[in-house]
Amino acid sequence: MSMFPTKILAAVDGSESARRAATVAARLAKATGRELHVATVGFVPAMYPYRDLGAAEWNEQARREAGELLREEVEKLRNQGLADEAETHIRLGAEIHEIVDLAEEIGAGLIVVGSRGLGPLKRVLIGSVSLGVVRHAHCPVLVVRPGAREERVFSGGEILAAVDGSEAAAAASRVAAEVAGATGSKLHVACALPLDPQLPYTHPLVGERFEWSLEREKDEVRKFVEERAKELAEAEGVEAEAHLLLGRPDHEIVGFAEEIGADLIVVGSRGLKGLRRALVGSVSDSVVRHAHCSVLVVR
Questions:
Q1: Whole-structure pTM value
Q2: 49 exposed, middle or buried (CB, 10 Å; 0-12, 13-18, 19+)?
Q3: Which one, out of 45, 99, 179, 213, has a CA that is 20 to 30 A from the CA of 32?
């Protein structure tokens, strides 16, 4: 999987968060010579509130408003020297469905969205919508956090790749290494090991046995993440540092990213389960919701 896809789709809604996301998408497209597509979704209610405004009239009004918003957003990008050749798309309907469907139609290799949008009356990509795109898209999704240093997301910042031994996390770490190699960023590779024992019953020796088992698992996970960091460093010619995190995976990933001043977290969309200390879907969801920087979720 390549981090530099042929087509990049940015979803805009008039919010500052989506505007920052579109700027990141446009900068990435320009730097890599890829196609940029910018889309907005016009709001169409399930039930039409005005008796004197039928479905056709409502749809036309929604399309007109969406078109005006889209022109304004693309013009702002062009004023920055970006998006001169961007293709634009107007869709009507449910935001999540339309964005995911459009990405499939055009063969997008990356969707870029803001983590927050405007309120419901402003035809928005709210947080639940961006999270819905992450869950349902068939390609990687980059969620740009408001206030994040978007100019550093793909240009010499600090990148954190979360690994857990799953195929999704392995793919995500390869993408993170490729981005680090292409942008001169430092790569941090981290694996979180939960500390709470998963025991179905109590026993006088539980504490002693858990401590022994935990130390063994620490050694195994530390060895795994160090080997993974070494592999990625050699494959992409980057500086990669290994980290063992102890505690709940989503909390530890978000907290560690803030500690090192990460500009981008890269996670897999699904991980392992149960005894393998997984980055399951709920963990990647939680990282997207709570991270203080942009998050790239790799399918």
A1: 0.84
A2: exposed
A3: 99
% residues pLDDT > 90 (the chain): 54
Q: How far apart are CA 127 and CA 124, in angstroms?
A: 9
Rounded Cα–Cα distance for residues 105 and 97 (Å): 12
| pLDDT per residue as tens digits for the range 65-84 | 999 999 999 999 999 999 88
DSSP characters for 216-257? HHHHHHHHHHHHHHHHHHHHHT--EEEEEEES-HHHHHHHHH
- Contact, 151 vs 202, CB < 8 A? no
What is the maximal distance between C-alpha atoms in the chain? 75
The pair of three-digit structure tokens given for residue 142, joined into one six-digit string: 């980059």
The Cα–Cα gap between 61 and 278 comes to 47
Strands across the sheet containing 158-162: 87-92, 35-42, 7-11, 110-114, 141-144, 294-298, 264-268, 158-162, 186-193, 240-246
Adjacent-strand bridge partners of 187: 159, 240
Q: Are strands 141-144 and 294-298 parallel, antiparallel or unpaired?
A: antiparallel
Distance CA 188, CA 186 (A): 7
pLDDT score for 151: 62
Token pair 């504490």 is found at 207
Q: Residue 289 belongs to what H/E stretch?
A: helix 281-290
Q: Is 3 helix (H, G, I), strand (E, B) or coil?
A: coil
What is the DSSP annotation of 10-53? EE--SSHHHHHHHHHHHHHHHHHT-EEEEEEEE---SS-S-TTS
pLDDT-based confidence at 23, cuts 50/70/90? very high
Q: What's phi and psi for 109, nearest 5 deg? A: -100, -5
Higher pLDDT, 186 or 58: 186
For the segment 251-272, the average pLDDT, to the nearest whole number, is 89
